[in-house]
Every structure is written in C-alpha cells, then in structure tokens.
Design goal:
This protein is an alpha+beta fold. It has 5 helices and 10 strands; from the N terminus they run ααβαβββββαββββα. Strand 3 and strand 4 form a beta hairpin.
Length: 247
C-alpha cells in the first residue's frame, strides 16, 4: 500500500511540475520575507545605538521659554544622577540668502571646542562638507527643508532679519554643511519664527550669541550609557534623574 502511495505521489508531482515549482517558490519567498522582517528591527536598533553613542546624544533636555540662568545650570548640575550638563544658547529667527525669500532658521552657538571628546560635549555634529566655523561671521548649516533651502551652497551669505537681535553679526557666511543627530526625522521642525517651519539649522562659533541666558540644557544621566537606549533599564535610569529634576 505504501509503495503504491509513493508511486502515485511521484506520478502526481511529475505531472504537475510547474505547480510544484510555483508552490515551492512561494514558500521560499515567504521564508525569505519573514527572515528579513525579523532581522530589520534588531539591525535598526543596533545602528541607532551606535549612532547615539558615537555622537554622544543627550539623555534629558531642560527647556525654558524664559531662559535658563547660570544659577539654573548650577542647580541642574547638582542634582543626583546628573553626570554631565551642556547649556546651549540658541535663537529662532528669519533669514534669507542670495536675495531670495525669507525663511525660518534656528541659530545655535557651538561649544568652544565642538569636536572635543568629552561627556559635556553632546549631540556632536558630523561634518559633511567644508569645515566648522572658526570665527565671527562664519556658520555651518544643516538644511531641514529642501524645498525652502535646498539650493544653498558653500560661500553663500545668509542675511538675518526678524528676531536676530541677540546675534553679534547680521550676516553669516556658510563654510560647512553638517548633520546634527537631533534632526533625524523627515518631518519639518516647528518654530515660532516665520511661517512656523524651520528651513535650516545654523551653527555659529562660541561668543556669537550675546544673550546672558540659555535656551535649553542637555543632560547625560549617570549610568545610562551602560544600557541599550531602547531597553527598560535605560529608561528607568533616565526617568529616575528626570523625577529628581522635576522636584
């Protein structure tokens, strides 16, 4: 009986080779798709972790619409679990280049040594072209809206207008293009300046912004860097510091 069944099975397969090949191909394709999908998540997490660690991306951020004073920064630094603090001066304003229409930009002042490998130097820029600004009147740029600012080039002069009173100069020459690890989304960054959508992020040397307060403060939580950024342990370490800061 078994021999007869086997003969019939092979006879059926021989008579339906194309169908068998189609079914086999469908199963093979399904296995390949499933294997690929199962490997995408872990791969993206590993890539994200490497990027965050390499650019020393912050764990927590404190933002104040009224500004943060030196006293505020000292108080934040004294909170238990705060391993490093990076206060940042920045301003959102309007600007134009090559006589074009105005667009909203964010000007951020860089640390004294923007490439220094230390915990307090967070969100390190990746230089894509040109160089980092080294003197007053120079800037590096990341284009956030290709439609509004995609045509800007090295050597272009950006003329600042509305909302730029806290800058030491009203014109900035583009000397480099960078990638900021904070601007990884494809969605347009919002702002209170101009039309409400940032066209560029602009980075200027230390001393370019004249205000005596900070717009935000980035924080590294003690021990958080020993965990995967997507893990519950990492979130718990960061939340513990956040709770103390809120108090």
């Amino acid at each position: 009986m078994k021999k007869t069944y086997r003969k019939n099975m092979w006879r059926e397969l021989a008579a339906n080779k194309s169908r068998f090949a189609s079914v086999f191909g469908i199963v093979l394709l399904g296995v390949m798709m499933l294997s690929g999908l199962l490997s995408v998540g872990p791969g993206m997490r590993r890539a994200g972790q490497a990027w965050y660690s390499g650019q020393n991306v912050f764990d927590l951020r404190v933002v104040s619409t009224l500004g943060l004073s030196e006293k505020d920064i000292q108080a934040i630094s004294a909170v238990e679990g705060v391993a490093a603090v990076m206060p940042v001066k920045s301003v959102d304003c309007e600007a134009s280049y090559r006589g074009g229409s105005t667009l909203a930009i964010r000007v951020q002042q860089l640390p004294v040594y923007p490439t220094l490998q230390e915990d307090a130097n967070m969100n390190r820029l990746v230089l894509e072209e040109g160089r980092l600004p080294g003197s007053a009147g120079e800037c590096a740029v990341q284009v956030l809206d290709q439609g509004a600012a995609g045509s800007i080039r090295l050597g272009d002069v950006i003329t600042l207008s509305s909302g730029a009173d806290d800058l030491s100069t009203q014109t900035l020459t583009v000397v480099g293009f960078v990638t900021d690890p904070l601007y990884f989304s494809t969605e347009t960054e919002s702002t209170t300046a101009g039309n409400g959508a940032l066209g560029m992020a602009i980075y200027t040397p230390d001393g370019s912004l004249t205000m005596d307060y900070y717009a935000s403060c980035y924080i590294k939580a003690a021990g958080a860097d020993s965990y995967d950024n997507y893990s519950d342990e990492y979130q718990a370490a960061v939340d513990a510091v956040a709770d103390r800061l809120e108090e």
